[in-house]
Amino acid sequence: MGQCVGWHRDKVAAKKRLLRELAVLHRSGNKEVTVVFDGGPFDDVSDGELLDGVSVYFARHGSDADHRMLELVRNAPEPSRIIAVTSDRLLDDQLRELGAQTVRSGRFRKSLEEET
Questions:
Q1: 94 touches 74 (CB < 8 A)
Q2: Nearest Cα to 73, choosing from 52, 96, 54?
Q3: In angstroms, what CA-CA distances link 23 with 3, 80, 88?
Q4: How many Å apart are CA 65 and CA 112, to the nearest integer?
Q5: pLDDT digits (tens, 9 = 90+) for 61-108
Q6: What is the DSSP letter of 39?
Q7: Do strands 49-51 and 83-85 pair parallel, antiparallel, or not at all (unpaired)?
Q8: Which of 33, 37, 58, 99 could cross-link to 26 by cystine, CB 3.0-4.6 Å?
């Protein structure tokens, strides 16, 4: 989301926009897509919910999305099939240590815009 100008003005709207874009990505290639947001669930989307083909998770209380991503990858049956999106170097290193592949946020944003 940080790759989009003005996202911070209305974070819930930015999250919902990203969800719509990820749903298009899911439908276009029948890809399994999961998103993890900082903060708690919003009114009409709960933690772990499948929304338009996108699995939606939120940071646990008192934690952040980075830790939730690590938890999800750590518990995945095949971490090597996961492509995680982050621009945080430490998180990138940790995800790779768990077996996931990573892509930088800016690169992902460009590919997402090409899809939608």
A1: no
A2: 96
A3: 18, 22, 24
A4: 20
A5: 999 999 999 999 999 999 999 999 999 999 999 999 999 999 999 999
A6: S
A7: unpaired
A8: 33
Strand runs (DSSP E) across 4-109, as ranges? 33-37, 49-51, 54-58, 83-85, 101-103
38: amino acid identity, one letter: D
Strand partners, 103: 85
pLDDT tens by residue, 3-52: 455 555 667 788 888 998 999 999 988 789 999 999 888 778 889 999 99
Query: For residue 70, what are its two tokens?
Result: 């690590």
Strand (E) or helix (H) holding 12: helix 11-29
Structure tokens at 5: 């100008």
- For the chain, what are the domain ranges? 7-110
Burial of 89 (0-12, 13-18, 19+ CB in 10 A): exposed
Q: Which two tokens stand for residue 113?
A: 């815009």
Reported as a pLDDT band with limits 50, 70 and 90, residue 1 is very low
Can you give the length of the chain in residues?
Answer: 116
Residues 42/81/110/2 CA torsion (nearest 10 deg): 40
